[in-house]
Design brief:
By secondary structure, the chain is of the alpha/beta class. The protein is built from five helices and ten strands; from the N terminus they run βαββαβαβαββββαβ. The protein has an eight-stranded mixed beta sheet with strand order 3-2-1-4-5-6-10-8, sandwiched between helices. The chain has a two-stranded parallel sheet with strand order 7-9. The longest helix has 29 residues.
């Protein structure tokens, strides 16, 4: 496949680039600083630019089978608009037959309140509320303006190895998020890119057993 990754230099995005290349896919990565991309391959095309720049996003999206938005931010104190701004640019650039897989997180939409006491009552309102307010805006844009989409909401991310042990939950009754590795999230994204089962859905990703 031809796979585009936005937010490719670290975290889930970097794991996704590595996994996609390992499976033989052609990868296009949008990055602010090409020198920051640790992965190298003849099948990796680097596009320099911002996810909030319409021209750069259109360049990355063109000709891709699947576009993966794995953006993250370390900004937890100021106003956040990165996620919704990027979603707007993606919605304008994507063709109806292209699949968008976006990573948001536990705490968006109907996953709010499923993170456990400390996360829901302390970290979310005191630390993460601005970020997740924008992730809610991001999800709304995707739902309303993108034809084919999957919104992936991981639990609490770790740098652990790929295990292949993933629960993808859409009925959240009685579910509380737990840990899952970034490598496992990347593996799930690639599986959905190849054989999408969750189009128009928002699976919460957790481990079968917390680790």
């Amino acid at each position: 496949m031809k796979v585009a990754v936005i937010g490719a230099t670290r975290g889930i995005g970097l794991e996704l680039v590595r996994a996609a290349l390992a499976y033989g896919h052609e990868v296009t990565a949008l990055v602010r600083d090409p020198a920051s991309m640790a992965e190298k391959s003849p099948r990796l095309r680097i596009v320099k630019g911002s996810a909030e720049d319409a021209t750069a996003v259109a360049n990355v999206v063109e000709g891709q089978d699947v576009v993966c938005d794995t953006l993250g931010t370390r900004n937890v104190t100021g106003e956040v608009r990165l996620f919704s701004n990027a979603a707007e640019k993606l919605a304008a650039a994507l063709q109806p037959d292209q699949l968008l897989i976006t990573v948001t997180g536990i705490g968006t939409g109907d996953s709010k309140g499923h993170g456990g006491f400390l996360y829901d009552k302390v970290f979310m309102p005191l630390v993460l509320r601005r970020m997740y307010a924008d992730k809610d805006r991001q999800e709304a844009i995707i739902r309303n303006r993108v034809a084919r989409w999957i919104i992936v909401r991981p639990g609490f991310l770790t740098n652990g190895p790929r295990t292949g042990k993933i629960r993808a939950v859409t009925d959240l009754r009685g579910v509380t998020g737990n840990k899952i590795s970034r490598a496992d999230v990347a593996e799930f994204i690639l599986a959905q890119a190849k054989s999408p089962e969750f189009i128009g859905k928002t699976p919460l990703l957790i481990s079968p057993i917390s680790r």
